[in-house]
Amino acid sequence: MLILGALINVAGYGGMGFADGFWSAMFFRTLQGLGLAWTFMPGVKAIANRVAGANNISGNGGRATSLYVSSFAVCSSFSLVIAAEISTAFGWQWAFALPAISNLAAAVLILILLPPVVPAGAVDNKAPFKVVPNFRPVLRNRTALGYVIASFTHNFESLGVRAWTVTFLTWAAATRPDIPADFNVPLVATLLILIGVPTSLAGGELGHRIGYGAAAFLVMAASALAAVFVGFSAAWTLWALVGLVLAHNVFVLADSGVLSGGAVNAAAPGQAGNTVAAFGAAAAAGGLVGPVIFGIILDRTGGGQTATSWGWAFASLGVAIFVGALAVRLLSWRGP
C-alpha cells in the first residue's frame, strides 16, 4: 500500500506540471491527496508493526511514531522555500518535479528496506477484504476515541495554518511599514514549520514521560490560546506579531507527535491498523474542513483586509483545537 501510494504521488505531482486548466489541475491534485492518504498514516502503522512494545507506554512505539511524524514537518517546511526558488528560476511547472522524484525514491526505499512483518495480535489474513473498515471497535475504545476526535481538530488547525500562513504573512508584510520590503515570506514560513521538528519530538517525549493524554491536553490548550490572538496581533507591535506567530506554530506542531503516539499506544490488541485508519480518516476530514472554514470566515469578515478579519479566522482554529483538547481530557486522560 505504501509503495502504491508513493507511485500515485509520482503521477499526481509529475502530472501537475502538465495541467493546463482547473479540471486537469484538480485531477492531479486529487491524486496527490490519495497518495498522501495511502502513505502518511499507513506509515504510522508500519512503524508500529516494527517497534517492540508499540502498544505499551514503556516501549518505544510512541517515540518512534513521533520521530516519523516529525519528518513531515521537515519536508513540508523545506518544500515551501524550494518550490518558491524552483518556480522563480524555471517556472511553476518544475516546482512539482522534485516531489515526483522524491516519491519515486520513497517507493524504491520501501521496496528494499521495509520487509513484511506479522504484527502482534494480527487477525487472520484470509479474512474478507473490506473497502470500508469497521470502526466500531475503535469507537468503543474510550481512550482511542479521544485521540481520533483530537486528530480531526489538530488537522483542522494545522492544515488551516499551513494553507494560510504564507498569505497572512504576505498581507502583513504589505501593510506594515515596519516590515522590510525584501521580507522573504517563503523562507520565514519554512522556518516556522521547520521548528515543528524539535517541538514534535518534544511533544512525543513529554507524552512518553507524563502520559499522552495529559501531554496532548496541555499542548493543545496552549495552541488554542495562541490561535485566539495570533491574527489580531497583526495590528499590534511587530514583536507581539512575531512572538505570537512563533508560539502558535510551536504548539501546533507539538500536537502531532503526542497525538500519533497516543493513538498507537491506545490501540487495543489486534486493532492497531483499524485505530490508525480511524485516526487517519479523522485527520483527512479535519485537513479538508479547516482551510475552507478559515477562508469562509475571512470572506465574511472583510476578505482578510484587516487584522480583525484575520483574527476571527485564526480564532476559529483555536476553538477547534480546544474542542480536541477537551475530548482528550474527558476520554483519554487516564489512558496511556
Please provide a written account of the structure:
The protein is an all-alpha fold and about 325 residues long. It has a single domain, classed as MFS general substrate transporter like domains (Growth Hormone, Chain: A, Up-down Bundle), CATH 1.20.1250.20. Helix content is about 75%, strand content about 0%. The protein is built from 13 helices and no strands. It has helices spanning about 1-15, 20-35, 40-50, 60-90, 95-115, 135-140, 140-175, 185-195, 195-210, 210-230, 240-265, 270-300, 305-330. Helix 7 runs antiparallel to helix 8 and helix 7 (about 140-175) packs antiparallel against helix 13 (about 305-330). It is globular and about 60 Å long. It starts with a helix and ends with a helix. The relative contact order is 0.16.
